[in-house]
Design brief:
Blueprint: H1 3-21, E1 27-30, E2 33-37, E3 43-50, E4 53-61
Antiparallel strand pairs: 1-2, 2-3, 3-4
């Protein structure tokens, strides 16, 4: 994997670690969906918390089509 891809993957993994430790710390994006910004890239993890599980709804660019994920089935 080229250097930039590795850095992106590392940034996503770091965000997932933060998410596991502090799932309620991120801001609410819409309804029950929260957003966690990546540290080094203009992307965000959109996720929902249900009982003892966290569901990633999307990994979305912060400036392109901001609500493209809204119609996704969350089941």
């Amino acid at each position: 994997m080229p250097g930039l891809g590795r850095k992106f993957r590392s940034d996503v993994r770091d965000a997932l670690v933060r998410l596991r430790h502090w799932p309620l710390a991120a801001q609410v994006e819409r309804g029950e969906i929260r957003r966690l910004l990546l540290s080094r890239f203009p992307y965000k993890l959109l996720y929902a918390i249900e009982a003892d599980r966290i569901y990633i709804v999307a990994v979305a660019h912060t400036h392109r089509a901001p609500e493209y994920w809204v119609g996704r089935n969350q089941s």
